[in-house]
Amino acid sequence: DTGVSQNPRHKITKRGQNVTFRCDPISEHNRLYWYRQTLGQGPEFLTYFQNEAQLEKSRLLSDRFSAERPKGSFSTLEIQRTEQGDSAMYLCASSGTRDRGYGYTFGSGTRLTVV
Amino acid sequence: GQNIDQPTEMTATEGAIVQINCTYQTSGFNGLFWYQQHAGEAPTFLSYNVLDGLEEKGRFSSFLSRSKGYSYLLLKELQMKDSASYLCAVSPGGYQKVTFGIGTKLQVIP
């Protein structure tokens, strides 16, 4: 069990550029979540996958955001035409074991800075 | 919808005991989680409560009262490394999507 892996750890981009983040969950976990966290706030839900199916997408996610999880393995989160308000930590989490109430295991996050 | 309240900041002394409270109002309930988050790092799982009562795990304990919509996290024998934010989070049910509170930033002082 290598945990949840996220890449890159940091991303600085110019306003208007597109960015893509990757998340590799714990292999036996079938549930994968994306959250966004800004300074001084708790994580905010963005979207959720069970295997390859995207089951919910928050209204926080505008049309510029898209997420995929091909074949129910890794997931990508793409932000098109980035804006300064997109600057945040993007957290990926996976879950799949009932003994912890399906509690999340988080990746280290990708910190996005839009300049 | 979900509403989770917890204090934004607390300060406690090394070696002491601190209790971090959390109240919640949710449309459904299927468990309450506590996570620890050090500055600049991802949250890590601390505890899970689904039934009323106290769950003890080493220096950390978590309590739940479903009828009162109330939980607390108790940290004993505080250490400097316990300085972190503590996130209360609730699962309303279904596919276990979790809603997080704002987090309580705990500072442990010598």
Short overview:
Chain A has 115 residues and is mostly beta strands. Chain A has strands spanning 5-7, 10-13, 19-24, 31-37, 44-50, 53-57, 65-68, 75-79, 88-95, 105-106, 110-114. Chain A contains no helices and eleven strands.
Characterise this structure.
The complex is a heterodimer of chains A (115) and B (110). Chain A is an all-beta fold and 115 residues long. Chain A contains no helices and 11 strands. Chain A has strands spanning 5-7, 10-13, 19-24, 31-37, 44-50, 53-57, 65-68, 75-79, 88-95, 105-106, 110-114. The model of chain A has no long low-confidence stretch (mean pLDDT 91). With 110 residues, chain B is mainly beta. In chain B, strands 2, 4, 5, 9, 10 and 11 form a 6-stranded mixed beta sheet that branches. A 5-stranded antiparallel beta sheet of chain B has the order 1-3-8-7-6, with no helix packed on it. Chain B is globular, with a radius of gyration of 13 Å. The chains are: A mainly beta (115), B mainly beta (110). The A-B interface holds A 31, 33, 35, 40-45, 48, 50, 55-56, 91, 95, 100-109 and B 4, 30-31, 33, 35, 41-45, 48, 50, 87, 89, 91, 95-103.
